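for the writeup, i need someone to sanity check this before i put it in the appendix. the sequnce is what the collaborator sent (i think, or maybe the updated version? ugh). structure was predicted straight from it, no edits. if anything looks off just tell me and ill rerun, i have time this weekend
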Amino acid sequence: MSFLPPNHSNGNGKKPANESSNGNGRSSGEQNIPAPKDRIPIKPLDEERVRAVKRQAKRFYIILVVTGLAIGLVASVGVVAVIQRLGLTEVVPIGEPNTNSD
């Protein structure tokens, strides 16, 4: 069995002798892969566990939203304080010359 890709040559420009192409670029051995017979059985979901996971996800989501709102509140108060300290909230009357220009 070769582990080379279907269109790969073995170095001498020819395909390996144990692979025969069936016209679509795949070897004939790749199409007939049997399904595994010893599959792992999947247990049905426990309803109580599903409810607990949903509750936990909802709680986590609420914590994230509240944390984001708190960070946004602190950031907005800081921005307003900086804008006021820099004097960018003062109203300049229309028609008066700018006295800050030297």
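Residues 46-85 form one domain. The radius of gyration is 35 Å.
thx in advance!!
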